[in-house]
Amino acid sequence: MKKLLIFLFFIVSSLFSSDLFIQKGHYLVTYDNLKLPNNENLGLLGTSYVYDFENYYLGLGIYSAVSGERGGFFTGGIEGGYRYRFLNDFTLDAGVFLGGGGGGSAPQGGGLMLRPHIGITYDVLDYKVGLGVSKVKFPNGDIDSNQVYLQVAIPFDVVHKKNKNSPMILDDIKNFMKDSGKDLGWSDTYFSLTIQRYMIPNGVKNTSGALVKEDMSLIGFEYGRDFTKNIFAFVETAGAGGGGADGYAEILGGVGYKQPLGKNYGFTVQASLGAAGGGRVDTGGGVVHKESLGLYMALSKKLVASTKLGYMGAIDGEFKATTFRINFDYKLKSLSSGKNLEFLDSYESFGEHEWNMQFSNQYYFSDSSIRKNGDDTAMNLIGFKIDRYFNNGFYLSGQALGAYSGKSGGYAVGLVGLGKRISYNKSINFFAQILGGVAGGGNVASGDGFVYQPMIGVEYKVSDSFGIQTSLGKVKAINGELDTAVLDIAFSYKFKTIN
After folding, report:
1. Around Cβ 450, how many Cβ atoms within 10 Å?
2. Number of domains in the chain
3. Which CATH number is 246's domain given?
4. pTM score, two decimals?
5. CA 265 to CA 247: how far, in whole Å?
6. Helix (H, G, I), strand (E, B), or coil: what is residue 263?
7. pLDDT single digits (tens) 298-356
8. Which residues are CB-neighbours of 220 under 8 A, at least 6 positions away?
9. Domain assignment of residue 329, yes or no
10. Alpha-carbon distance 401 to 487, whole Å?
11. pLDDT tens by residue, 264-285
């Protein structure tokens, strides 16, 4: 993996002489109909965000149950592959997904999932549509299925700056725009911390057929981008921490409408569709919908708080709830490529924001506190992290990981926290962070789901953009038995955005 990341860095470096560069990529959407033991079907929706490097691609993939009987089945990990173009509009696509997860009481064993695939796509306008054959296998479980899959690939461009201390001025951006032939401008995006409460009506049953007697509390994230002054699109994800539903998770995408009522406040309407389940919550095959109406208030130019009331329900399951949520949005105006952007000359001054994306392996040391039955088997998790750096070395971190070995398939954790980076020399940084969030599933003794995780570590920089990080700490459930040491090893990719 280290050699692959260094190789990709040199590819990017050779493609762009400027510190600014257009990173091309694709959103990949796939559908596989898996055959499970006892002739059971499971519809698996794949959604991946990958960067393109010449004929190769690499990025993050998430697979979710959307039909069958396994609502709450999720896996996340690394998606990579190779494309070979032929006959003008056709492309051969071969690759593999490697990740961890499970859930929905599926026979996933320890949680390791492999999905090799090979297929052909055809260009339709700017998109690629196609089909192929795939194999979904859980090596330490009972899932081993071969099937035909369908795929849609949607292209995107993002504007990145190499992770160097070389400040830019507006003329630099204009010169790059002229040389690249790309239309650049400013887009409005936001990152949000969400706190939710699901109020479940009388008569709703869980997957065991028992009446649900407790409401659910959730913590999560939301990311959105404006397409016009009023219309925006968003993706949200959350996990349960309370209400006897530890292990419940959801990921949805949707559209919203916002209307100012004054200079600093207004209302929003949102609707989304996605996958959810786990924690004995009966979402049937896994597809859920959510709608909400809310009020927002700007606390500053970059911080917005909002409250929203809504409804959520499963398409073919028992679950339904009235929802109440609080959002804390951090708004960004980013240099972007595409349409419906503010003119480049709208702002004379701007800054650079450093980001750190990481593919991570976490190891839970052997301890009898890990599982509800006292089993002390050690556990491995695979996941993705993203850090946003601020002044003086402080950073915010968001992380999502799922188990792939250690008898706990279906265990997943989502964390957010604050960290501090201290530079030792040009090649070595030290860091410390405190994280909190929700975790559950896989028979892990996470109590009501709320956990915290302090970590300290060191980073070795292979180059300005690529590095290797290792850290040591512990994970502890606030109201559960889980309390064990954690070792994390991650490969990192740093870049900057112009804001």
Report:
1. 23
2. 3
3. 2.40.160.20
4. 0.91
5. 36
6. coil
7. 999 999 999 999 999 999 999 999 999 999 999 988 888 877 777 776 666 678 889 99
8. 193, 194, 196, 236, 237, 238, 239, 250, 414
9. yes
10. 13
11. 999 999 999 999 999 999 999 9
